[in-house]
Amino acid sequence: MSGNGPGNGPLAIICGGGKFPFVVADAVAHSGRKPVLFAILGWADADAVARFPHHWFGLARFGRFRRLARQEGCRDVVIIGTMLRPSLLQLRPDLTTLFYMPRIARLLRGGDDHLLSGIGRIFEENGFRLVGAHQVAPGILVPQGVLGAHAPSARDQVDIDRGLGVIAAMGPFDVGQAVVVADGYVLAVEAAEGTDQMLARVATLRRDRRVRLDGKVGVLVKAPKPAQDRRLDLPTIGNRTVAAAREAGLAGIAVEAGGTITADFAELIAAADAAGLFVLGVPPPASRAAL
C-alpha cells in the first residue's frame, strides 16, 4: 500500500451505483483537477455519468480500463459507489483480467475488505495509485460531535460504546461495519445484507414483539473495521439510513467521525432532525483512547 497522497493529474473514478461517484467528481472538478469517470455497466447512472469525461466498461474488463486510463493520463484511481459482489460465473474477463483470475477467485472467497484490498494491489502492480474518495473530496467525511438538533442520552452513550466495542471485536473476521445496540443488548450485526436490510430486520423484530422495547430505544453504530484499508469501502450514511433507523424505532445514529462518509451532509441532518433522531460523530479510536 502506497503511503503517498493523491497527485494533481487527471483522476480516474471507477463508478458503481448511487450518488457518491458524482459528489466526488464534482468536488474534484471544483478543485481544478480533471475527473475521468470509468462507469461500470449495469450500475452507474448514465445521465449523471454524461456530465463528465467518461468511459464505460464491464466487470472483469481490467485490460480496457488500463488502456483507457493510461491514454487519459490517469495515475490516481478512486473506486466509489455501490455494487453487489459478483459470482465467478457472472464474470466475462478480457485477456488481461484472465491472467488475474486465479487470484480473483481466491479473493472472492474472503470478506469485502479482503476482496477490495486484493483488487487494489492489482491496480498498484499495474502502475496506478489507489486513493480514497475522502482524500480527494474531504467534504464527504462526517465531522465530530452532535450534528443535529437532537443529542444522545446517557443510556444511548452506553449503547454507542457497546456498539463500537462489537465492531472492534469483529474486525479480525472481516465482518460488516455496523451494529444495532439497545439497552446494552446487541440486536443485530451487519453481514452481507448491508445496513438497510439489517435495520429492516430490527424493525421486524420489534414489530413482531420478539424484542420488547418501548419508544425510541437503541442506536445504529457504524465505524470502519480496525485494520481496514480506508481508501476502500468506508462506511456510509444518508437519508435512507435515517428512514430505516426511524422504522426500526431507534433513538439515533453514531458513526466514527472522519471514518464515515455521506453524500449530502445537510440533507442527512435535516432528515434526522425531522425524524427526531440524533446523529453523533464519535472520535476515532486513538482519540477515544486518550479521553
Fill in the keyword field for this structure:
single chain; 291 residues; alpha/beta; Rossmann fold; Cytidine Deaminase, domain 2; 2 domains; six-stranded mixed β-sheet; five-stranded parallel β-sheet; 11 helices; 39% helix
Strand content: 15-25%
Q: Average pLDDT, to the nearest integer?
A: 92
Terminus-to-terminus distance:
30 Å
CATH homology superfamily name of the largest domain: LpxI C-terminal catalytic domain
Helix content: 25-40%
What is the number of beta strands?
11
Q: List SSEs in N-to-C order.
A: EHEHEHEHHEHEHEEHEHEHEH
CATH class category label of the largest domain: Alpha Beta
- The total number of structural domains is 2
Kindly provide the radius of gyration, computed on alpha-carbon positions and rounded to a whole number of angstroms: 20 Å
Question: What structural class is derived from the secondary structure elements?
Answer: alpha/beta
Sketch the major β-sheet.
6 strands, mixed
Indicate the overall shape.
globular
Sheet with most strands: strand arrangement: 6-11-10-9-7-8
Low-pLDDT runs of 5+ residues are none
